[in-house]
Amino acid sequence: MIIGVPKEIKTDENRVALTPAGVKELTDAGHKVLIERGAGEGSSISDEDFVAVGATIVETADDVWAASAMVLKVKEPIAAEYPRLSAHKNQVLFTYLHLAAGRECTDALVAANNVAIAYETVRLRDNTLPLLTPMSEVAGRMAPLMGAHHLMRPGGGRGALISGVPGVAPTNVVVIGAGVAGLAAATLAVGLHANVKILDRNLDRLRQVDHHFDGRVQTIAASTLAVEHACIDADIVIGAVLVVGAKAPKLVSNDLVARMRPGSVLVDISVDQGGCFEATRPTTHSDPVFEVNGSIFYCVANMPGAVPNTSTYALANATLPYTMELARHGWREAVLADDALAEGVNVVEGAITYGPVAEAHGMVHTPLRSLI
After folding, report:
1. Count of C-beta atoms within a 10 Å radius of residue 153
2. Closest C-alpha to 276, from 246, 305, 306
3. Element at 21 (helix H, strand E)
4. Which has fewest Cβ within 10 Å: 178, 284, 311, 335?
5. Are residues 203 and 331 in the same domain?
């Protein structure tokens, strides 16, 4: 199979979908790997690094898309890439898609008549998300750091140090959602000596969190009133809510923000799925924040893109086994053999096969099994 890796062109996105280790695994198995020139530079991976393990460097993204039976990316295609989606018949696209929050991209993939498999909806039998987990860990660990920076005056906040100092209390950090990202955020916040509260509807998960932190984090059963009470006293609120493949619920209203401390900071890790704050709108690393009712909102849609070297290797470590199966067997056989990978299939030849995406856009859902 010919596998292509184009350079990411979304604003401030420096990750790349494959590392030299992945190239070697694929080429050793007899596949051909095309890498767009400069695709790895943002992640500190040179063209020479790729060539040394068997990759072929091509000059343009058009060359990659036109020649490849499978295209590996990091982020969903953007408008400039839509015409390339139909450059190769029966092509497989394997990347993060977040289609429930993106009608334009959904329409473009449906029109392309190819197969789109989303990293974020590949789901194991225990409901874990093996391809979303590494980036959730990165974004979760970044969230308190970004919140701490913007809580300082130069970052636009009220001028508080997250850890406090002897004689001055540390700040209050509230994490909404106790999944992978929320746990990572709480871990960093505790390490920064903040007072941390974490909210979730799953009481069993809260028991696990309580045990993990040995009681150093206050666990709270999530409800509308509990979220309200926690946010009003917060200096930093981190939204880490995930409904797999679907839009995130809006849990923090603008009215609630107006009652929070002026200069507080809200970091929305859920922005890729539409965000869990009413005011959330995607921002970039170049222009990361905006103000609503006296509070600072950080809603960067590709947080791990700020640390692309770490993120690229973390992501590629997780995706490579699935990439190998797709390349070895083709998407149909690979999906039939792996229920987790089947969960990742969102669009097949013009049909939406992932229910939450169809529901989000009021479109027809076609069960995957009826197509294979």
Report:
1. 11
2. 246
3. helix 20-28
4. 284
5. no
Active-site residue, selected from the candidate residues 98, 200, 235, 338:
98
Beta strands in the chain (DSSP E): 2-5, 32-36, 56-58, 70-72, 92-95, 115-118, 172-176, 195-200, 218-221, 236-239, 265-268, 289-292, 295-298, 345-348, 351-352
Q: Residue 185: left if φ>0, alpha if ψ -120 to 50, beta else—which one?
A: alpha
Tell which phi-psi region holds residue 245, choosing left (phi > 0), alpha (psi between -120 and 50) or beta. Answer: left
Same structural domain for residues 302 and 179? yes
Do 246 and 301 belong together in one domain?
A: yes
Instruction: Residue 169: give its domain's CATH number.
Output: 3.40.50.720
Residue 146 reports pLDDT greater than 80: yes
Question: For the residues of 24-75, what is the DSSP string, one character each?
Answer: HHHHHTT-EEEEETTTTGGGT--HHHHHTTT-EEES-HHHHHHH-SEEE-SS
* 272 catalytically annotated: yes
Residues 117 and 168 placed together within one structural domain of the fold: no
**Considering its fold, how many domains does the chain have in total?**
2
219 plus 358 within the same structural domain: no
Instruction: Name the residue type at position 338.
Output: D
| Residue 89 pLDDT level (bands cut at 50, 70, 90) | confident
Nearest-angstrom CA–CA distance, 335 and 165:
54
- At residue 148 the predicted structure's pLDDT band, cuts being 50, 70 and 90, is very high
**C-alpha distances out from residue 53 to 16, 27, 32, 79, Å:** 16, 8, 11, 32
Q: What integer pLDDT is reported at residue 245 of this predicted model?
A: 73
Q: Which residue has the tokens 């062109």?
A: 9
